[in-house]
Amino acid sequence: MSHNFALYVVVLAAGRGSRLQGRPKPLRLLGGRPLVRHAVDLAIMAAIRPIVVTKPNDKRIRAALPQGVPIIENPNDAHGMGMSIACAATHLADKAKALILLPCDMPFVLPSTLAALARKADQSEEWVRAPYFASQRGLPVFFGRNHFRCLMALTKDRGASDCLERARKNNRLSRLNINDPGVLFDIDDRQTLARARRIWKRRQVTLPPAKLYA
């Protein structure tokens, strides 16, 4: 990894994906790879450390990851994304100066978007940085260390919206206008999964060769 300060991409992969039914969402395949692997590869391509939040003892997700990628097990995974974010922020509180929250169901985010969010991250502990495409706020989102306490207090399935709103009110939300429609596309149900597969096929995406995390 090229960053010499403590920045992590937190891949949120503890969700059950009940609207998809059957196989858990992080393990749904796109272009022959699980969604969670796409998210981790995205972080690696952007030269940022990935760390993955999973359900306890999720051997299938562990097996889907490159060797050496760290995992945080969320014991309260049934209580929603907010608990996964809180678990990650607590784990990284004494390790990271910043983190980027990346749900595992956003396979079309560009590596350049992660790199842009991470720019000057070592000087951005008091900032939240969000990507905007076509005037709409998307994901992933950068949180400097000063916002970890808010993330650690999250509960249930509200995600980090409360912390984003608090940052906005305190004039600590930075808007990153970016030419990446992938920040607005998430796989939420069978219909969006089918659409993602059509997009992938139409783009004739070539996957990079598998490589180890270092």
Protein architecture, described:
By secondary structure, the protein is an alpha/beta fold. The protein has one domain (7-203): Spore Coat Polysaccharide Biosynthesis Protein SpsA, Chain A, CATH 3.90.550.10. 30% of the residues lie in helices and 20% in strands. It contains seven helices and ten strands. It has helices at residues 35-45, 59-64, 81-92, 111-118, 148-152, 161-169, 190-203; strands at 7-12, 29-30, 33-34, 49-54, 71-73, 98-103, 128-133, 136-137, 141-144, 173-177. The strands form two sheets. Strands 1, 4, 5, 6, 7, 8, 9 and 10 form an eight-stranded mixed beta sheet that branches. Strands 2-3 form a two-stranded antiparallel ribbon. A hairpin with a 2-residue loop joins strand 2 (29-30) and strand 3. The longest helix has 14 residues, at 190-203. The N and C termini lie close together (7 Å).
